[in-house]
Amino acid sequence: MNWTRGKTIGHGSSATVYAATCHSSGEIIAVKTAEYHRSEFLQREANILSSLNSPYVIKYRGCEITETPFEATYNLLMEYAPYGTLTDVTAKNGGLLDEARVVKYTRQILLGLEYIHNSKGIAHCDIKGSNILVGDNGEAKIGDFGCAKFVKPEITEPVKGTPAFMAPEVARGERQGIESDIWAVGCTVIEMVTGSHPWIGLDSTDPVSVLYRVGYLGEAPELPCSLTEQAKDFLGKCLKKEAKERWTATQLLNHPFLVTKPNIEPELGTGLVTNSPTSVTDQVFWRSVEEEEEDQDRPSWWECHEDERISVLNWIGPTWDHMDGEDWIMVRRNND
């Protein structure tokens, strides 16, 4: 596929996402790019995404390798979501969403999870507002499958994801499956309601403290007092400390919190939305540890003892530098 690269719409430690225009159709797509020698995680994401087909999952458009005299890059081509992420939409609505809109988005997230859990046997492993994209018609779509995995056969491997959204069993480094996604749904609902991450307190922005609180002290995020009793009961089903006691996506779709509210169309802004970091918290506490795994010089988080994990976090810092001249246009041409 021939395409012209446009503006940067996302930037991480290992990959950059651009808006791009297809030459043949004029369609706008999203292109996620990484240096080829650091693209194993992106190739894994492409493999999983190419097997999925749901209106509540971002669509796969292809993949390719681009070579220049100086470097080779791996490109994952995807559906473009014009309204950005759910986190972006929440910010545009004054930092929080009303309950009717929370219901709408939560229902759509669960429909996507029901599909990947039941039909494909896949756990996403990094559900959060910044990984939920909002499409042309205002529908929520699950994106960023860089941490995703097949749940069977169950093999021992390092857990991945974002500390603020990790379930107790994940925080302890024990296991990660579809039940962990349900815990993250509960955290994402709190994020939509409050406009901030699900943990409060003086140590709420410290990943080590939060992992200790959820994994070893048995704490769960505090439920916002503004929620109705139905909403609180719904979150209670998501945030069960024991993974096997959490409701499934199918069960949650039939919870009164989701079935008694009318469908409404969310009010969305217009224009290109980016998910650029706005604070150090965005870069450290909200970022997936999956993004760090490509750097072989860094010790694995889960291979360290608890007292070593703080020093490991010193490796994870904000990335303020961007490519020079992000506004310039590059034309990519690849022969079929």
Automatic annotation (TrEMBL):
Query: Where found in the cell?
Result: Nucleus
Q: EC? A: 2.7.11.25
Annotated TM spans: none
Q: Which Gene3D superfamilies match?
A: Transferase(Phosphotransferase) domain 1
**GO CC annotation:** nucleus
Q: List the InterPro entries.
A: Kinase-like_dom_sf, Plant_MAPKKK, Prot_kinase_dom, Protein_kinase_ATP_BS, Ser/Thr_kinase_AS
The record's listing under SUPFAM superfamilies reads: Protein kinase-like (PK-like)
Positions of ATP binding:
K32
Q: Name one GO biological process term.
A: response to osmotic stress
UniProt entry keywords in alphabetical sequence: Abscisic acid signaling pathway, ATP-binding, Kinase, Nucleotide-binding, Nucleus, Phosphoprotein, Serine/threonine-protein kinase, Transferase
What catalytic activity does the UniProt entry give for this protein? L-seryl-[protein] + ATP = O-phospho-L-seryl-[protein] + ADP + H(+); L-threonyl-[protein] + ATP = O-phospho-L-threonyl-[protein] + ADP + H(+)
GO terms (molecular function) for this protein are:
ATP binding; MAP kinase kinase kinase activity; protein kinase binding
Q: Which Pfam families match?
A: Pkinase
Domain named Protein kinase: residues: 3-258
Give the domain of life.
Answer: Eukaryota
Family statement drawn from the similarity comment of this UniProt entry: Belongs to the protein kinase superfamily.
Q: What is this protein called?
A: mitogen-activated protein kinase kinase kinase
Q: Which organism is it from?
A: Arabis alpina
